[in-house]
Specification:
single chain; 479 residues; mainly alpha; 2 domains; 16 helices; 0% strand; disordered N terminus
Amino acid sequence: MGDSSTRSENTDAIDGALLQGSRRMPDLLRGHIWNKLLVLALPLAASAMLQQLFNAADIAVVGRFVEGAAHAQAAMAAVGSNTPIINLLVCFFVGTALGATVLIAQCIGRHDSDGIRKAAHTGVVLGVLGGIGMALLGQLIAEPILDIMQVPADVLEPAELYLRIYLCGLPIILLYNFEEAIFRSMGDTRTPLIVLACSGVLNVLLNLFFVLVLKRSVDGVAIATVVSNTVSAVILAILLCRGRGYVKLEWQHLRVDSGSLREILRIGIPAGVQGMVFSISNICVQFAINSLNTVVMAASAAAYNLEVFTYCITSSFGQACTTIVGQNYGANQLRRCHRTLWVSIAFSGALLSVAACIMLTYGEELLSLFNSDDEVIRIGMIRLRYILIAHFFSVLIEALTGYLRGFGLSLAPALCVLSCVCGTRFLWVYGIFPIYPTFSCIMAVYPVSLGLTALFIIGACLFYRKRIASPSLPQGKLI
């Protein structure tokens, strides 16, 4: 009786510590799933869309306000040429930070206050130290990377300057991603959205200040990006130090816990590589598009600026699914985990259907905002149709991937993406496209590769679901 009473008191103490200051956090372990899913997913989608708009603002500012048409075009090309590199880094950072989201969410579900503390502080330290290491490595390979990408000689110098300044901010950028991951694990996606919106506005204002007032060019917008990211990271750090949710950062606990580090990397590295594989395969497809003509390139670029918003919908529901499944798996509520998957697929598919109807109905008008040429609009609509079909497969891929990651299973979906997406697109670009060198042919690779990937990930879920449902299997020992 004495031991039982002591355990009960310890559990109550842990519950009290976890819940102190967390009343604003949604309770993901009880109640309806659909409203919790929307509370998480919609701010994530809005954050991704805002990020796209703010990234476009960097190019727009240098394109419109740098003095001299030639200098403005060179500045636009310099910033734009770094987009694939930055996308690769961001995909890797977001994926790696996801390891912290899953681990902390599972600890929250188990009411493991010590595990939450260790995982959160390990993630913050990993973000800073990992960012420093990558920044130093990036400075060494910045010029060779731009050479590999065949950046034109007249753009190479400003492109390298922009990249080197951006790389200096990697410790801050990676820290922000881990801080955001901590908030996401608690079910709070609204706070990072507000902070992102504020820092994004600051970024635009600083862009204008550096370019219009100080007469800077690409270095000005690069510095503005680093400064705005620093502000957002500092704000999130202050909020975490005040302990608004389950997590409270404390300086004396900022150290690396080997067990937490191992789990974060085990889950996060495959997720980061998965995101990078998507970016690399898209670069491969872009090479094929570039081999056609400038009209096709312009049409494809215009359509991309529309389709990226529909992808934000599918990816946000996948990320929200990860958080809810993670917490409920930690609480050993497996039925609720499975129900979260189906609700994620239903809501993501429904919202994507609405967005697709809008895109197809008003696609020509939307494309004309970027370019009014009839041929550009016609070709842009071809891309939109193929990509929107592909995004319905993305609904399954993102939801199923998020579901598996919630259990700590990150390697299986990464291998599916690596083999199906990357493999199919490389074979298509270098095998089928040379035989049928048309824009429709190259666009067909998107639904084909994503459809194949969806089938493989469904198979992975069926395989792991039997093991997940096994009552004798210890948590965290699925693979």
